[in-house]
Amino acid sequence: MKVKLIVSISAFVLTVFISFHSNVFLTSIKRGIFAFVIFYIFSSIIVKLLEREMILFNEQKNTNNPSNDLNNANDIAIETDDNKSYDLQDDFQPMKVEKLNNDEIDNMDPKMIASILRNLEDDNDKKQENA
Q1: What is the pLDDT of residues 58-106, one digit of tens each?
Q2: Domain spans of the chain?
Q3: How far apart are CA 11 and CA 23, in angstroms?
């Protein structure tokens, strides 16, 4: 309420002072009143929109709290065929990559080798950008 009045009174005073130089006093007051009303309406609309956005932001912040998501993800358990449950973190195993022999590389298509090398270069570029 205070902000709307301060903005509106400022618009009134500025309009009166600016228009007083080239207009009659009554015309300057009339234009100041118009400025007061228009700025009061605009500031009311802006305040209502900001209040609505703040309410939506607070609701979204409370429902999508990342710390809650992380806590819930660690508590997830998987049921196996033996009806034993275990945590997802205990089940992590690094990926095993098969190594190619020199004979396999010699027999590969050159286009295939080029595409593999390009993919590796792209991965290295991405890692360097993230570092």
Answers
A1: 888 777 665 555 555 555 555 455 555 555 556 677 777 777 777 777 7
A2: 2-65, 101-131
A3: 17
Sign of CA dihedral 17, 23, 26, 30: negative
What span, in angstroms and rounded, lies between the C-alpha atoms of 82 and 86? 11
What's the pLDDT tens digit per position in 11-21?
999 999 999 88
Answer whether 35's CB lies under 8 Å from 11's CB.
yes
Q: Say what the pTM is.
A: 0.45
* CA gap 58, 23 in Å, rounded: 49
CA distances from 98 to 22, 87, 94, 107 (A): 87, 28, 13, 17
Task: DSSP for 26-41, please give it.
Answer: HHHHHHHHHHHHHHHH
Q: Categorise residue 73: left if φ over 0, alpha if ψ from -120 to 50, beta otherwise.
A: alpha
